[in-house]
Amino acid sequence: QVRLAETGGGLVQPGGSLTLACAASGTTFSINAMGWYRQAPGKSRELVAEMTIGGTATYAESVKGRCTISKINAGTSVNLQMNGVKPEDAAVYYCRAFGALKYAPFDAWGQGTQVTVSP
Fold first, then answer.
1. What are the φ/ψ torsions at residue 106 (nearest 5 degrees)?
2. CA atoms of 69 and 55, how far apart (whole Å)
3. Tens digit of pLDDT for each residue in 97-115?
């Protein structure tokens, strides 16, 4: 079982920066990829950025050039750095980890951290 603990978020000014961190615990050797998703009020949850255990990163078009995802701690933690924050970046951000343990796939989510964008 994989558990995720998120830190970061809060109030950010437009044009500012934010850093989100997600640490995985449990059967972390079974993780194939970790990433960040977000959900704004009235909208579906969407990908922000994701990184495979091999280091391949995927970014949403809306954050390309403004976001960097990186893995640390031998891939058991993943950080998201966002610069040039926009009002439309306001959302609840969720960490996700997925993989397979003994051929059984799993999809773990964090509880979410609120990001508010305001002057």
1. -135, 160
2. 10
3. 999 988 899 999 999 999 9
